[in-house]
């Protein structure tokens, strides 16, 4: 891949600014944890695994900012850093997974010096990023076994290298199938209102020469009904114990249309996206974002100011619409309650 989503460099965090794509490939440098939190909230960086990495690196930055004479003061301030990270976005469980993993490392080093704790947190954040890349490649390998030669794959939103530490989950499956010479084509939903498909997925696929067609969200059913789509592959932000999956708004509609047209619908996600504490998807918190994301494009109003607006950023696809869930440890289908726990090693 010819871009880097996020990187720890010289005790700062470097991120590609995803709000400026596809027109400009700009990298921002963050030297304090609060600006990393703002970058997550403002979707400079977005995508479940990517915001897990960003939160971890933000906490590592925060630990270096803390001025403390005692361990008690350090850990009290570190808790505050973690709480600020946790308030950035509510749906992607990877954010909280990353925060908890960093907390565990800090606790495990409580007996060490503050600088040793800071160093351990920095190394853990870098490790999380490096691991995510390997995880995505493994998701790709497993997922590619489901993709027939010459398939046309519909994807929604961006579950690509930009949504992870690189390579992607849904786009990881697509990349792996392409690299295996399966001669695949992609239909990418533009994904209103934030246009992750038009701005980010299309950018990734064009850069790599993977054949892709951009469609507006309301065209997905048309092409499915005409027999032009072989299968659908999407990412995820939180997967409940029974397989119900939260993903970008519009995913549920794609899944129902796929079921109606007898098209396999796959979710590609790392184990860190599982939330087995939730029995089903009804408890998954759904982020509601600012109305301007719906009424404006690039700052230009496309709706009158007086109109009321709703902007849920995610929806939940019931497990019955999901053909299989592709993880880095294998493909889960059928009895999700059993299969997901097994995949998680429980
Ligand atoms: C690799 S999962 C990415 C997942 O996150 C996206 O949401 P957002 O762009 O709001 O962070 C979308 O749901 C993707 O499927």
From TrEMBL:
Substrate binds at residues 46-48, 89, 196, 247-248. Keywords: Amino-acid biosynthesis, Isomerase, Methionine biosynthesis. Signal peptide: none annotated. GO terms for molecular function: S-methyl-5-thioribose-1-phosphate isomerase activity. Pathway: Amino-acid biosynthesis; L-methionine biosynthesis via salvage pathway; L-methionine from S-methyl-5-thio-alpha-D-ribose 1-phosphate: step 1/6. GO terms for biological process: L-methionine salvage from methylthioadenosine. The keyword Glycosyltransferase does not apply. InterPro entries: IF-2B-related, IF-M1Pi, IF_2B-like_C, Initiation_fac_2B_a/b/d, M1Pi_N, NagB/RpiA_transferase-like. Its EC number is 5.3.1.23. Pfam families: IF-2B (PF01008). It catalyses: 5-(methylsulfanyl)-alpha-D-ribose 1-phosphate = 5-(methylsulfanyl)-D-ribulose 1-phosphate. The record marks 157 as: Transition state stabilizer. The active site is at residue 237. Catalyzes the interconversion of methylthioribose-1-phosphate (MTR-1-P) into methylthioribulose-1-phosphate (MTRu-1-P). Belongs to the EIF-2B alpha/beta/delta subunits family. MtnA subfamily. This is Methylthioribose-1-phosphate isomerase. The lineage of its organism: Bacteria, Pseudomonadati, Thermodesulfobacteriota, Desulfuromonadia, Geobacterales. The gene is mtnA.
């Amino acid at each position: 891949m010819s871009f880097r989503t996020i990187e720890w460099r010289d005790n700062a965090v470097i991120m590609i600014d995803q709000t400026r794509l596809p027109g400009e490939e700009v990298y921002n440098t963050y030297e304090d944890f609060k600006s990393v939190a703002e970058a997550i909230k403002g979707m400079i960086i977005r995508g479940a695994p990517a915001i897990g990495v960003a939160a971890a690196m933000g906490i590592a930055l925060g630990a270096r900012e803390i001025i403390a004479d005692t361990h008690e003061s350090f850990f009290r301030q570190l808790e505050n850093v973690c709480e600020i990270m946790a308030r950035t976005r509510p749906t992607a469980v990877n954010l909280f997974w990353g925060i908890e993993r960093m907390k565990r490392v800090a606790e495990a080093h409580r007996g060490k010096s503050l600088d040793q704790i800071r160093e351990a947190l920095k190394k853990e954040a870098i490790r999380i990023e490096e691991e995510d890349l390997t995880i995505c490649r493994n998701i790709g390998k497993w997922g590619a076994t489901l993709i027939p030669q010459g398939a046309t794959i519909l994807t929604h939103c961006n579950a690509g290298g930009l949504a992870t530490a690189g390579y992607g989950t849904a786009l990881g499956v697509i990349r792996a199938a392409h690299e295996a010479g399966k001669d695949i084509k992609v239909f990418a939903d533009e994904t209103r209102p934030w246009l992750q498909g038009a701005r980010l997925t299309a950018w990734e696929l064009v850069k790599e020469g993977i054949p892709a067609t951009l469609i507006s969200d309301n065209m997905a059913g048309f092409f499915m009904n005409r027999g032009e789509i072989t299968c659908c592959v999407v990412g995820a932000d939180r997967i409940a114990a029974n397989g119900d999956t939260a993903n970008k708004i519009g995913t549920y509609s794609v899944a129902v249309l796929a079921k109606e047209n007898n098209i396999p619908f796959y979710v590609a996600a790392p184990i860190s996206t599982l939330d087995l504490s939730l029995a089903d998807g009804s408890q998954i918190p759904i982020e509601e974002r600012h109305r301007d994301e719906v009424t404006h494009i690039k700052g230009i109003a496309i709706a009158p100011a007086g109109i009321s607006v709703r902007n849920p950023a995610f929806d939940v696809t019931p497990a019955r619409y999901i053909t299989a869930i592709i993880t880095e440890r294998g493909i889960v289908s059928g009895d999700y309650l059993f299969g997901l726990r097994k995949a998680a090693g429980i």
